[in-house]
Every structure is written in C-alpha cells, then in structure tokens.
Amino acid sequence: MTLRRPKDGADFHLRGFRRTSHLFTWLGILKPPPKMAKEVLVQEGLDHPVEVRWDEAGVPRIDAQSMFDALFAQGYLHGRERAFQMDLSRRVPAGQLAELVGESAVPYDHFMRRLNLSYWAKKASGTWTEDTRQCADAYVKGVNLAFGQNPLPPEYRFLKQALRPWTVDDSNLLVYQLAWTLNTIWTAKWGYEQVKEMREIREWLFGPLEGVPHITIIPGTGSPLAWGTIGVGSNNWVVDGAHSKNGTPLLANDPHLMPQLPSIWYEMFIEGGSLAAFGATLPGAPGIIIGQNHDLAWGVTNVDPDVQDLYRIHMESDGLTYMLDGEQTSLTQRQEIFQVRGKPDHVLPCYDSHVGPIIHEDVDGCKIALAWTGFQPLPIMQAILRLNRAHDWESFVNALAEWWVPAQNFVYADRDGHIGYACAARIPTRGNGPWVGCVNGNTKSTQWTGWVDWAEVPRMLDPAQGYAITANNAVVGPEADVFVFGRFSLGHRAKRIEALLTAEPLHDRDSFAKIQMDVYSAPLDQIAGKLRQWSALPENWRRLLASFDGQATSDSPAVTALYLFMLEALPRSLKEVLDQPFFYDVKPGVPGTHPFPERLWVLLGERIGPLVLSLWETIDLFTAVERATQTGKHWFGPDLAQWSWGKAHQAEGFHPFTQVKLLKPLFGRRNLPIAGDLYTPRQAAFALDPELPWPRLVSFMPSYRQIMLAARPEESVAVHLTGQSGHPLSAQYDNLLEPYLNGQFFPLGPGMKTHSWFRLRPK
Question: In principle, which of 78, 347, 500, 738 could form an S-S bond with 283, CB 3.0–4.6 Å?
C-alpha cells in the first residue's frame, strides 16, 4: 500500500483558476485563508487548554482533557474550515436556500418547507440526556467562536451577506437532511403508482429479473426480492482474524455520495476524556460518523428499507376537508413565510394530514401525503456520541438502538477479534403491508401499527463464514424471522466483493484497497459476450469488443459503446413511459433542481443491464447498434476507438458557484474522467436519462475510503475526496484528489505523523 504525502493538487487546477484567483486577489475581493495562530484565546466554553496538531494531508488531531473541550475544538475547526458548507447544509433541509442564492431556489425550498423538517429538528434535542446536551452545546460554542473570530468565507464576499450563528437545531437539521437524501423508497412507490396499470412496463421495472445475484447480507434467509432497485450505493465489509494476514479483523468502508467541493466529510482524530475516536466527521455535527476508537471500528452503508408510504386522500369540494372512516376531518394549514434574495417576501400555504405532510396534488385533485419515520424527534446525535464511546459488541448495539433514521448497515470489528453486522433502523409495522404505490388515505386502517422491536432487527455476531459484506443489497430474504422489505441493490457489487474476498485465503490492507478500486462489471461483460456472438455485428464494433473483459476502466471505449447500446435496446414503450416527468406539473430540469427526481428514468437504474439481457431475443440488434453508433459519433467523434469511458463518464465537484461562469474556475476544478459503472465495487452512478447530454456527470461515487484494523489502530488508513479546506485558495482545497483517484491512503488515528500545531486556551 502506497502511503505518501499528498501533492498540492496542481494537476487539478485549471489555468483559468489561476487567472481568476489572481484577478480577484489583485482587486482585493478575495484573500488567501488566514494562517492559524499558535494560540487562540477562548472567552467562554473551554475549561482547559486543547492542543491541535496537523498531519501533511491537513487532518487534525485534537488532544483535550475532557470530552466537552474536545468537541468544542471540533466545532471550532469545522467552523473555521467549512463555514459556507455548513450554512448551505442547514439551509437545504430548512427550505432557506432562496434567502442566500435567489429565486432559482424557490421550487426546491417550497418542497422542503412542506416536509417541515425544521419543526422536527427543534424537537430532536428533547430526546437527549443532559450529557448529550452538554456535548452539543460545547460543539456549537466552538463553531460560533470560529464564525466570530475568522474572516467570512470567500463565498460571502460575492453574496454580500452575513453568516448567522450556529445553533443546536442547525446540527440536528443536518441529520434530517442526510436522512432525507438516503431515504428514497417513496420515489419508487410513486413511480409504481404511475405504471401499475401497465402490466408489461410494471414487470420490467418492478418484477423479478433472471440471472441477477441472489445474495443477502444475512445468509440462509432465502432469495432476496428485487423490488424498486436502486442505481447508487456504498460498500463495506469485514473479515475475522482467520482471514487476515496479521490474524486480527480487517474492516473496509467506502460510502458513496455526490462529489462535492469541499468534500462532504472532514477527517479528524479526537481525544478528550471518555472520547477517543477518529475517522470521517460531518461538518456541522459533533463526533465521528464513520471510523474507529481504541476498542472497535465500524463502517456504514445505506439500507433504504420500507420506512415511507404515500397516501392518496380524496378531498371534499373545498379542498381542505376529507372523510376519514366516514367522519369529516380537515387538513392542518401552516403559513410558511419565504425570504427571497432580491425579491419581496411571499407566503406558502402548507398542509399536514393525519399521516404526514401533503407533498403533491395529483391531476385528479387528490392530495398525496407522505408518512416517514423521519417525521419525529430523532436521537441520532446521541447515538453518534454513544457509538464513538462504545467498547464492545453490547455497547455498540445499545448505541445503535437510537440510530433510527437513516437506516444503515453497520459492519463491526473489535480488538478482541470479534466481527459483526447490525441493521440500525426504526422500521414501521403495517397491518397488511408492505404497500407499494399509493394507499388509501381515507381510512385509519392503513396507518402504521407500531415499530419492529429493536431486538428483532437483523444482526449477527461472529458469522460462521468469517466475514460480512454489505453493498446496499437486501438485508434478509423472505425466510428470515423478521423480513425487511425495501429498495435494494440487485447484488452485483456484493457478489463481486464476495468473490474477491474468497479468492484469497488471507487479506491485508493492500488486498482490501484493490477490492475498493475494482471495476469489473458483470452485466457489461455478459452483454459484450452476446454481441460478439451475433454474426452480423459491424466490424468496427467487433474490433472494439474483441478484447473487452468487463473492466470498466476510464480508457475503455467499449464501456461507452455498451451503455449507448443498452439505452437504444430498451423497448420504445418503456422509454416513452420513462420520459414522463416525475410529477405531472413539474417541468423536468437539470438533475438536482428539485429534492425529487426529474423524470421517471430514475426507476430504471441498475436494472438496465439485466433487463436488456432478459429481453435479448426481442431486441432489434441492428437498429440498436446503428442508433448507438450515431449517438456516439455525435458526442465523441467518428472513430469508435476514441470513445473512451472517461470522455463519457466524468465527475464534477459540485459547488454552488460552479453554476456561475465567472466563478466556476475559482471554486470548481476540471471534470475528472471516472472509471467504474453501476455494477462495479468502485461504483460511479450516473443518470441514464437520454435527454441529458454527454458526458454524463457522476451523481454518486466513493466519498471516503477507510481500511481499519481494530486491534492495531496505528495501522488504520483512510482518504476522502477533494480535501480538508473549504477555501478555494488553500492548498488543501483539492490536495487529496490525486491520491484519492490513485487509490492511495494516509494514516488516520494513532499512526498519524503530525507536525504543526496550535492551542485553544481559556482566557
């Protein structure tokens, strides 16, 4: 494994970035980030001095005498390095983007205000103990010290706005935003509602598929169901000492999220009192989200179980009342006041039903209500802090008892040699569920009846096979004692990871790193094989596919050709349905314009490869190849050998200012050619919608990679996408891009080599 100092990121800077940054600096509009003073005096909130040391990658190590002082320092560093990112992160779930960026964000804000997440964020701290409350308060005081002592982030120089203080409610809002992003089964249920009367289309999008891997996280529970499959995902796995070269457990995790500038994560090692943990932190929230302490390590992937339901409510003529089991009841109305940058304030009426907020009015006048486990006070912050201090399997599971939303697959390893898996979720029970599509909202019989008991939520300690793997595949099959229905991956990534794990008797960090970087795509390999068997395949395609072995590398033109072919091979009747807007009254735009999909193409996702294989005998191969050739020539030129996957499939680090032509060279970086596809362990998901131009921008990719040794924390390593700083003139804004792309890691935890330092000291 290569561990080396990261470069300054020069290879990823645009020439335009240098010109633009020099211009803004010369005009006095933009200043470099201030140097850290050797000592920062603290008026309030700190009991004892705290020392912070940095490694070469810009990762800090906090040494404090108490947990509260350590979390104060964490808040200070987050506030100093990521203030603008934190401000956006609280505005998105609160529906307050338009205050900052203007009218373009109003549609997004309107939908989020309907969800009323700010209300629940305010209630969440009521679930905490006094200890958790003090931890959160210490963190918030650290954030606000940084907000007050340091210059405004450069973004505010252009926005001409102030940065309001951070609050505990803001930290809770981040949890609700992350949960909303990762709970998406409602979108599949809405899609099912649109196609349920179209038998053939319904089966193509939601029915069982032949030839897909049948692999569940908990083995021996039957074949998983593949309803409403997803096209994005993350990986984690753990092996016991019998499967590692050093005789102790190894744990790997690479959570996949949208690529951002700066990274969604901020790496950190925190020590103070009972807290001694390291890994990935979420700027705006205290504690370590993914990582390790001195006793155990953990990693997470998304579950997306059945925690959301849609209700169709037939309304009376006034549009406000409806019958509920024969009795008249009314919607509750809220008046949401909007401040819009450069525009007058306006009021949005929002409505809540007996099951949840109204999110849409359908073409027939019915109101659509959403029920979600996130619409309650969530104690997740407390779960995180307890998880950070867990010391064995029992305390680990007890901490996860309060991790309700978003549901996550946790893999576990401890210094005593134990490994395990736990599904952390609050899952509702239904009288006759699960339900797909929209259910009757005019009767109480469709309301949830309670929750699956925490003791019955699936988990396993020291599995007989000596390993546990999750890649968003089904938790259990229908033969399990407690069946978990959900929207799961088809299992190609999980199957490939299992094959690579079992191919070698013993593993180490190097072999785990190779698995994380693996780009073998089984469906592409199978489709290429079938095309090679077609005697009428054009010669230029035959040459292109002759040596293709399923490796979705960025220099492979075969991958581009195969995806173009798959899109053209789909039945016309299916494509016509998928072209429809997600909501009939919302005009599709650029993906991300709304907090829900733009078109029904989102329903296809990773089903495209297996679906094309299952329909093979009905495909007009000549027409599909011809149209794919025309599309490819239009976007990539006449020579098929030049259609490299890296030209068609790229990542752009998202920053709001990259949407502004003048500012994009400053806050953005050049698009990066990305390997991998929907089925590879190194997954890089992208939108299939043919209406979108090529190259396709990657929507989800590994945001952080870690390989942890629970018994040898000094040997644990990690890397995340982009860099630690949120300031575009900092060398640490993008210094991790090259190491990340090359699969390199850096020590994280006791093995960190620190150098420069500063001290926070009570005044």
Answer: 78
